[in-house]
Amino acid sequence: MQFSRLTSGPWKRPAAPAPAAAPSRPRFWEGQDVLARWTDGLLYLGTIKKVDASRQVCLVQFEDNSQFLVLWKDIKPAAVPGEEICCACYLESVSPENQLVRCEKCGHTYHQECHLPKVLDVSSDGAGVLGAWMCRQCVFAVATKRGGALKKGPYAKAMLSMKLVLPYQLKALEWDPAHLTNRQQCYCYCGGPGEWNLKMLQCCSCAQWFHEACTQCLSKPLLYGDRFYVFECCVCTGGPESVRRLPLRWVDVAHLILYHLSICCKKKYFDFEREILPFASENWDNLLLGELSDTPKRDQYSQLLSALSSHKDRWEQLL
């Protein structure tokens, strides 16, 4: 028996943001090795093949030889050795209250007020550049993980403190009517790109979408398209995130399994006994089924089959 793949409905990648004034020196160039943030919230090593200054995008070739256009805002180049300039505003001027701080990991320098959150408790090394400090980008690079970010240790603590402030103006984002995508391609605490149906959680207070990899509240990895959570981000709680699993019906379980398989396998039909049932069995704990989790294994077959068979109109509407 086979069941059709589910789709999330029409989705179109939003247009790039309007170009801003470029810095006086070249920011990116062909052949430059960079880190690029992808739609899963993680950074990947790549090499710039082309630069389009008019649209503020670069064609980046990644280690698997794939090539994609990446917005400038999502590209992190290496620091230039010896350069004493803020990588956010590209200015050198400092004041006693707004000095340059250097990230001990990547070597980039920021004005204390240009970095978000503002750098407050540091001591000068006498050269106007302050040490023993890691920037937001590097903290996220270390702490973000597939399945959820680090929950314990110094990097987890540093990440939590930085997540209390977003690196962009949330109210300035231009959303589609369904509030699924924005024109600036700016999501999450990291400010990177995202796809709402691919392992992201929507905050119940501010309605922004957050990558699984950047959240620190999940007990199990997300399935693709899993929206059966009530989630509130750090900005809205003023502290750690909160998350609560919603009760699931068997038709919801069938929906999650079919949708996840459709994304992973990139095909339209699935065999119940050879694909759907084995996936459910192997991922039983990750589904976080609540009261349904105690269902005897012999009954799981009949319950899933019944849900799939009796809600065919639901699957047809989503094709």
Tell me about this structure.
The protein has 319 residues and is an alpha+beta fold. The chain is built from seven helices and 14 strands. β7 and β8 form a beta hairpin. α1 (136-143) packs across α2 and α4 packs across α6 (297-310). The longest helix has 16 residues, at 250-265. The chain starts with a strand and ends with a helix. Mean pLDDT is 88; it is low at 1-24 and 124-131.
Order of helices and strands: EEEEEEEEEHHEEEHEHEHHH
Main sheet, how many strands, which sense, barrel? 5 strands, antiparallel
Number of strands: 14
Unreliable spans: 1-24, 124-131
Q: Going across the major beta sheet, what is the strand order?
A: 5-4-3-2-6
Mean pLDDT across the residues is: 88
CA-atom Rg in angstroms:
22 Å
Q: What's the total helix number? A: 7
Which structural class matches the secondary elements? alpha+beta
Could you say which overall geometry the principal axes of the C-alpha atoms support?
elongated
Q: Please give the share of residues in helix.
A: 10-25%
Gap between N and C termini: 18 Å
Q: Indicate the proportion of strand residues.
A: 15-25%
Domain PHD-type: 83-141
Biased composition (Low complexity): 14-23
Keywords: Metal-binding, Nucleus, Repeat, Zinc, Zinc-finger
Pfam family, one: Tudor_2
